[in-house]
Design brief:
Shape: globular
Radius of gyration: 22 Å
Helix content: 25-40%
Structural class: alpha+beta
Bound molecules: glyoxylic acid, manganese (II) ion
Number of strands: 17
Order of helices and strands: HEHEEEEHEHHHEHEEEHEEEHEEHEHEH
Number of helices: 12
Largest sheet: 9 strands, mixed
């Protein structure tokens, strides 16, 4: 495409800010847990924007949303783009939302240019990319790719013990969970625009990251059961303090992740629930949720093994009971070289600088890669900050991403 897309970036930034106002927390803090009232309002807002752009909207049985711009040949499998609008507690405006509203903006820019794609272009808004409610990330795309079966999905519970069946019904989504699964070929190709969530592009002054691989995430849930009691009257000898045991495991995970000697291995304990949670009561039960990632799946698994061994050792030395549950251990994904070359050509055409890079965060593209050729386009974010309220991507960065996404979609849709 030779004509330069005219970006209406001011309008898009206003839309991003408006979406950010829809939050369970006081804005500018964004918290939008899947199927919460805020999530449902945010979905409504984005769907209204899609409808105004003339897109045809369909939702599946768990609320994955497909907004289609009909192509010249509607029989052909569409090119997909999109991301998520759910947000972890205490998040910012850009994670996921740049890919959804940016994808929509790319479509609107192309419409304004009078372009009509051969293949339809479908904007996808995935349900529950974030693991906040169900403890497992990318639930929507995971189910689309049949990486998690309907039976396994039905067994998921949130902190209040509510399951997918109850929550999706409350949100108004019905139909068989089997129907969420998509066959290979349903999408011709899929491209996700996202903020980098790391510092490299900004540090190096590069406009765009062309993602070649997505790192392998895993999560192990750990339940430690000790013995509670009075914090004053119960003396130190013979205590079975579940939180003291947890502390050892948290440090064991940190040490295991560092011990690979490779910068790509990371391990985090992001959830630590203490029961009964009273200052004058010895913790009798602790639940940890751990997150381990690497670009090398085997090395990631060796860290998980070390953590499991630490669980046995700590259980023996402290006389507590420790059980573990592997929530997920996903392989890394490789992006499609042809789409990456297409993005390269699009970036060159737009006069943007770029580098090939690995995504250390996971994304719905990790699972879309099971059913379609995928790639991801990263834009910088200030200081590499993400999953925090001060997450920021400048209008220029977002504009570059949309410009190159639009050009890429044109090439893929022909
Ligand atoms: C996605 O939000 C991730 O945690 O990588
Ligand atoms: Mn995220
Ligand atoms: Mn994201």
């Amino acid at each position: 495409m030779s004509t330069r897309p005219q970006l209406t970036i001011d309008g898009l930034i206003l839309e991003l800010l408006s979406l950010g106002q829809i939050s369970e927390a006081e804005p500018p803090v964004v918290t939008r847990v899947v199927f919460s009232e805020a999530d449902m309002r945010a979905r409504g807002y984005v769907k209204s924007l899609c409808a105004s752009a003339g897109l045809t909207i369909q939702e599946d049985a768990i609320g994955n949303t497909f907004a289609r711009w009909q192509g010249r040949d509607p029989e052909l499998a569409p090119v997909g783009t999109g991301s998520h609008i759910d947000a972890i507690p205490n998040a910012g405006l850009y994670d996921g939302c740049v890919g959804v509203l940016g994808g929509l903006e790319a479509i609107r820019v192309l419409q304004k240019l009078g372009y009509k794609p051969r293949r339809s272009i479908e904007l996808v808004i995935f349900t529950s990319e974030e693991p906040t409610r169900f403890g497992i990330g990318c639930l929507g795309s995971r189910m689309m790719a049949n990486v998690i079966s309907p039976k396994q999905a039905l067994a998921l519970r949130d902190k209040e013990g509510r399951g997918l069946e109850e929550l999706r019904a409350q949100a108004g989504f019905k139909g068989s969970l089997e129907s969420v699964m998509l066959p290979k070929g349903r999408f011709h190709q899929f491209v996700e625009l996202h903020i980098e969530q790391g510092p490299l592009l900004e540090e190096q002054g590069i406009d765009l990251g062309l993602v070649t691989h997505i790192a392998a995430p895993a999560s192990l849930r750990i339940l430690i059961e000790g013995e509670g009691g009075h914090a004053g009257a119960r003396l130190m000898p013979g205590r079975k303090d579940a939180l003291a045991a947890a502390a050892e495991l948290i440090l064991a995970l940190e040490a295991a992740a560092k011990s690979t000697g490779v910068i790509d291995t990371v391990g985090t304990v992001g959830v630590c629930e203490v029961f009964p949670g009273a200052v004058n009561s010895i913790p009798s039960r602790v639940r940890l949720e751990t997150d381990v990632r690497d670009i090398d799946g085997a090395r990631r698994d060796s860290v998980l093994d070390t953590l499991r061994r630490a669980c046995s050792d700590v259980a023996a030395s402290r006389g507590v009971t420790i059980t573990t549950e592997l929530v997920n251990a996903d392989p890394p994904a490789t992006c499609d070289p042809e789409i990456v070359s297409t993005m390269e050509a699009a970036a060159a055409e737009a006069g943007k600088t770029y580098k090939k890079m690995v995504s250390r965060a996971y994304h719905d593209s990790l699972f879309m890669a099971r059913i379609a050729p995928v790639a991801m386009l990263f834009i910088p974010c200030r200081g590499g900050v993400s999953h925090r309220p001060d997450e920021y991507a400048s209008p220029e960065w977002i504009g570059s991403g949309i410009n190159v996404l639009a050009r890429t979609l044109v090439k893929l849709a022909e």
